[in-house]
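re: that chain from earlier
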Amino acid sequence: MVDYRKTTVLAAIAILALVPLAACSSDNKESTSSGTSAVTTTTAAPKPAAQIDALTGKSTAVALDKGFTDALTSLGLAPGGIGTATLDNGSVSFPITGGHVKYYTPGTVNPYVQGDINHNGSGLSLTAGPTTVQLTNFDIDPGTSVLYGEVSVNGTPAATHALLFDLDGSTLKPLQAGADNTAILEGTRVLVSKDAAALLNKTFNTDAVKAGLLVGIATITLNK
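^ sequence. v structure.
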């Protein structure tokens, strides 16, 4: 039996990879009220293979793709970190501040990964001349493979809970053990969403920002 209170991210992935879970259970009940025998089968709702009610961790980092940085340069845009975010050597990192995750055996529930990963108090800025767009307080929804956030222009709120980036996990690498007792998930592609492209184009008076533009490759580092 899995102890949900003590389950770690590493154990959660291991359970999905190594422990088969029954898709359903049945209870047979026999009725003889009419003189005949009948069997009634009930299917129990699947339970999570692992559950993390209070997610803690290190950070979500994105190694910025050269195509993205070249596009920013061509537009005269300079990226920067906001709050607790750091931008160094072509990678921007956002500390994980909370959230929760449930993992189901693949095939029993769709989506089989549910929850959210919060990054409050940090974000990414894009500046051109007197105009600065700030994308902050990222919220990753693994069930729908999207990243939401807040948007402001020169300090004035422009959107809340905006769909900023689409996430493509098809290139995700197997779970790795990292330093300082961490688990690492690397390889998710981060793409500019249609909504974010429209907002940036309008703000900076251009049509050069395309939906689906590869921002970079994400690495999520979590405490075990």
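The longest strand covers residues 113-128.
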